[in-house]
Design goal:
Rossmann fold; Threonyl-tRNA Synthetase, Chain A, domain 2; eight-stranded mixed β-sheet; 10 helices; globular
């Protein structure tokens, strides 16, 4: 498996997967991964190479966690099926679900981090009407452009998950609509944020998202942010991959990531894998840790 170091993207020299520049940095103590397109293939499969790599990291004391828009319940079932949950292999030791809620491995199960989860849920009660109204304004804007667009889920589910979402026809429409929503947020000084996952456009509490949730989890576990490796492939991963948010995570993205996200990771001196999805994640692990999976 070949690799490309984003910090040296302008050169054509290949690097050894255990580059000494990484060895000189503080060792990685936690690796946080998106699911779909990062370690999850076709929405349901995890490659054996990924399981092998994460198991090896866990054996060395590295905490393996998720940071995804998938619900916690989906993740619990997924990792139980692959014997990676706390009741079996305890490979995945914490979950970030719906891009906001945190669950950690305790007593053989995933337990809610109530201090964080209860606070964000209480705050969301007041923010949801504002977010839902803006989402409907965005839907009107898209329809005014002649686009076919729909809500991903009914209002009650959007409230429960904290992610009111519109489904656009394609990624280009999604990107354009996301920019329009961000302009409204900035102009009105709203306590909201927006992001995009391909053609899905979301609005949420500005104090949540993968970056803030991961920072809270790291603090809870006593792990410095510069010893956290965040890996993702889509625009909804940007708060944990974009150094401008100030979290200071180490970063990596994959061959299947959009060019915009690769540029963000490159700007942080992060790692850009050549391989896609699960194999790209393994490539990044090979390059940035002391684990090697062939």
């Amino acid at each position: 498996m070949t690799a490309t170091n984003a910090a040296n993207e302008s050169t054509t020299d290949s690097i050894d997967s255990h580059d000494t520049s990484e060895i000189e940095r503080p060792p990685i103590a936690m690796i946080a991964m998106d699911l779909d397109g990062t370690i999850l293939e076709a929405g349901e499969h995890i490659r054996p190479e990924v399981i092998e790599a994460l198991t090896a990291l866990t054996a060395q004391g590295v905490r393996c966690v998720t940071a995804t828009g998938r619900q916690a319940s989906f993740q619990v079932d997924l990792f139980a099926r692959y014997e990676m949950d706390p009741a079996t292999g305890n490979v995945i030791q914490a979950l970030i679900g719906d891009e906001r809620e945190i669950f950690t491995s305790q007593d053989g199960a995933y337990q809610s981090h109530n201090e964080w989860n209860d606070e964000l849920r209480a705050r969301w009660v007041g923010l949801f009407p504002l977010a839902w109204s803006l989402l409907n304004e965005a839907k009107d804007e898209a329809e005014g452009r002649g686009w076919e667009i729909e809500h991903l889920q009914p209002e009650e589910i959007a409230f429960e998950r904290g992610l009111p979402t519109l489904v656009c026809e394609d990624a280009a429409q999604g990107a354009s609509l996301c920019l329009w929503i961000q302009e409204q947020i900035d102009t009105r000084n709203l306590p909201l944020a927006t992001n995009r996952n391909i053609r899905l456009v979301q609005i949420f509490d500005v104090q949540t998202g993968k970056g803030p949730a991961l920072a809270e989890l790291a603090q809870m576990l006593g792990i410095p942010n510069n010893q956290v490796l965040a890996i993702g492939d889509s625009s909804n991963d940007y708060t944990m991959l974009d150094g401008r948010f100030g979290f200071g995570f180490r970063t990596a993205t994959l061959g299947n990531a959009e060019d915009e996200l690769k540029a963000i990771v490159r700007a942080t001196g992060g790692y850009i894998a050549e391989a896609n999805s699960g194999l790209g994640t393994v490539e990044a692990i090979n390059a940035l840790t002391f684990v090697t999976i062939l």
